[in-house]
Known about the structure:
The chain has helices spanning 2-25, 28-32, 42-47, 99-109, 123-135, 147-158, 261-270, and strands at 170-175, 180-185, 188-195, 208-211, 214-221, 226-235, 238-242, 257-259, 276-280. The protein has 286 residues and is an alpha+beta fold.
Amino acid sequence: MNQPRRIARVLALAVVTLVGAGACTFDPQERAGADRPAPASKAERGSGASDTAGPDQKSTKRNPKPTKTTPAPTKTVKKPAPTKTTSSDRGSCPQGEKQREVEAYLAKLGGFGRMKVDGKQSIEDCSAIKKFQKRYDIRPAEGRAGPLTLDVARRLASTNTAKCKTGTGTTFCIDLTLQTVWAMQGSKVIMKPTVTRTGMKDFATPPGTYKINFRNIKEWSDPYEVWMPYWQHFTQGMGFHEATTYLHNPVGSHGCINMLPADAKTLWSLGKVGTRVHAFGHRAGT
């Protein structure tokens, strides 16, 4: 009787062992490591420590009585009285050595704000000079009346639009002496004078009267390997286009009429094949 009982117990134990082993081995989550708890450190394995009590682990904490904490008295900090802002520190700009001259030219040009020609930097002067510098990409546009700001203001204020020989249609005018460009419709100015950069030494832009004979919204320059946006050609591979470098670099172009992006775009919108071009004067040093 004892022998059959022993055999039955051995068989039952074997079945449980096989079933349990099979269920654990082929669990895809176990193989992939999903939802598996991180292995306990040596200290944790030795002490059985855990942040929370497990299902078979009683918490060792005994509901301690809450301790009363007396908050530290808060100190009242008096806020300083607001300081009064004077006209000298509200949006003020550094004063340049050409302050009075720039004031005079900006007052003549108009459109940049109220200017008092007294050689003293004011809030109004600061705002007007900054606006002027941003319009013509004079860097940095900090409101300081320096030599470059004076030069650009002088050239624009000195441009005489009546010197351009125009026809009955649209004419693009280039003053090579003052390095300015504007557009006329008959005797009416349809684009105010703006700054430009024409040909440098050995690449001088020739004076004369021409016509736009080719246009491309974005032309590729083979010899210089650069894109020329708003390209309008009029003679000898020369034409109007957006400047590809800082316009106020004094070196000059290879004969083309370099313009600020917004100005090149405006001139493009006014032109077409057949538009008259009149260049006059002489750029110094060419």
